[in-house]
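Subject: sequence -> structure tokens, single chain

Hey, anyone have a minute? Need the predicted structure for the following. Not urgent.
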Amino acid sequence: MTPMHRPATGEAAEQTLSLPDLCSEAADHIARARLSLDDKGYDTDRALAHLDDAIGCLQRLLAKGREPHATATPSRRSA
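Reply:
Had a minute. Here:
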């Protein structure tokens, strides 16, 4: 597994990530959490930190999905 470049923190950085990037980042954190538990050291704190980061990614993904779409056309009413 190759480490992903972690984007700068802040709202501007979070808004620039695409949906596939958010999914990929969340999956990367889940994989890192699993590796933390599979290591001989069994580092639960590190695993929990990665799971927290994954949850953060998924929350950003949810928020992005709830944003109004700029290309959406207004609904038309028939008379």
